[in-house]
Every structure is written in structure tokens, then in C-alpha cells.
Amino acid sequence: MATPARIAILVVSDRAARGEYEDKGGPGAEAWLRAVITSPVEIARHIVPDGREGVAARLRALVEDGADLILVTGGTGPAPRDQTPEAVTDVAHREYPGFGEEMRRASLREVPTAILSRQTAVSRDATLIITLPGKPSAIATCLDAVFAAVPYCLDLLGAGRIETDPARIRAFRPKAG
Ligand SMILES: Nc1ncnc2c1ncn2[C@@H]1O[C@H](COP(=O)(O)OP(=O)(O)OP(=O)(O)O)[C@@H](O)[C@H]1O
Ligand SMILES: Nc1nc2c(c(=O)[nH]1)N[C@H]1C(S)=C(S)[C@@H](COP(=O)(O)O)O[C@H]1N2
Fold first, then answer.
1. Per residue, what are the HEC states of the chain?
2. CB-based contacts of 125: which residues, under 8 Å, 6+ apart?
3. pTM, entire model
4. What structural domains does the chain harbor?
5. 161 alpha carbon to ligand 1 midpoint, in Å?
6. Fewest C-beta in 10 Å: which of 42, 46, 73, 105?
7. What transmembrane ranges does the database entry give (predicted)?
8. Is the CB of 111 under 6 A from ligand 1?
């Protein structure tokens, strides 16, 4: 059997980290991934409070640990504690602004405040890191909008291979020539 791709979900939320509310983002993201990915996959969920240093440190550790893909939810907005984009930039080797553009475009069809999210995607070594808004309902909207490009991006980075259910997401891998 193929080596499972390793995916980490990092929920960034002060209140979920303190246990003040039940985290719905992490389970929502995991359910989305399990419904879409048909190849072997290991999914781990983590929760950290908002904050540039803490989020960056956790991202470095997850990359070091061999994650192929990291989904980060929360902390992308304009509030002072929203520092996820700064943390992601701190650990980035490369940025892929098209992810943020497309996720915002899809979210703007639902809420005008989607424009407030500074969500983006970066890579560090062979790991792709995608940031998503914290609102649990935003997670599916954003993943639906961009995930078709994720498997090929992981191929190009040298990360683990992911196959998807074409009825949900048709992964696009350009043919050679
Ligand atoms: N992990 C989560 N689980 C459940 N609901 C969430 C989660 N993250 C965000 N939300 C909901 O979406 C709203 C907007 O998310 P945002 O990330 O801006 O939260 P926030 O107001 O900064 O608070 P916190 O960091 O404590 O989650 C929150 O007020 C909350 O109702
Ligand atoms: N699809 C979708 N995108 C969305 C939202 C939403 O409700 N649905 N909320 C917006 C709002 S109100 C904010 S402030 C930003 C940032 O959210 P975050 O700080 O939780 O990352 O995401 C935006 N993107």
C-alpha cells in the first residue's frame, strides 16, 4: 500500500484553545478531507491560541515532523490578535497568492466581509500550508474553491501523493507535452 499522505489541521483560536467553545473548525476540515481524499491519508488535529510566535513555532514543528499539507484555520482577519498571516509569512519559503485570491472570490459570493480575510498559501520545504478563515462554514467554501490544484502542487513540491474522489473534487494534473 502507498505511504499515507500526512495532513495536519491547525486550529488557531483563543477561545477554542481555552476550551471556551467547542472547536467545530478542526472536525469540519477533517470531515471535508475524509470525504474528498480517496488515497491513504493520516490526519492530525491541533489547537493553538492566536499569536504570531506560537503559530509559527507550531508550523515549523509540523513541517519538521513531515506533514505534506497543513490547513490552518482562524486568525486571518484584521483584529489585533489575528496574526496567522504574519506567522505563515515568517515560516514561508515561497508564497502562492492565487490560493487566497480564489478563496476570497468564492467566499465573497457568500459574505461581503470575506474581503477581510488575509488568507493565503505558502510552502516551507516540501510542505504546503494553506490558511482558511476560522468560521467553520468558511472551511468547505474555501477548500471547494482551491483543492483541485492541491494534489499537483504537492507532486511538484515532492510531498506525498493525494488522490481525490472526482465526484467531489477533480484533481487537475496537467499531462506532459
Ligand atoms: N474553531 C472554531 N470552532 C467553532 N467556531 C469558531 C472557530 N473559530 C472561529 N469560530 C467562530 O467564527 C467566529 C469568527 O472567527 P474568528 O477567528 O474571527 O474568531 P475570534 O473572534 O478571533 O475568536 P477566537 O480566536 O477566540 O476563536 C468566531 O467568533 C466563532 O463564532
Ligand atoms: N466563506 C466565508 N469566508 C469568510 C467569512 C465567512 O463567514 N465565510 N468571514 C469573513 C470574516 S467576517 C473575517 S473577519 C475573515 C477573517 O476570519 P478569521 O479571522 O476567522 O480568519 O474571514 C472572512 N471570510
1. CCCCEEEEEEEECHHHHHCCCCCCHHHHHHHHHHHHECCCEEEEEEEECCCHHHHHHHHHHHHHCCCCEEEEECCCCCCCCCCHHHHHHHHCCEECHHHHHHHHHHHHCCCHHHHHCCCCEEEECCEEEEEECCCHHHHHHHHHHHHHHHHHHHHHHCCCCCCECCCCCCCCCCCCC
2. 63, 93
3. 0.97
4. 5-157 (3.40.980.10)
5. 31
6. 105
7. none
8. no
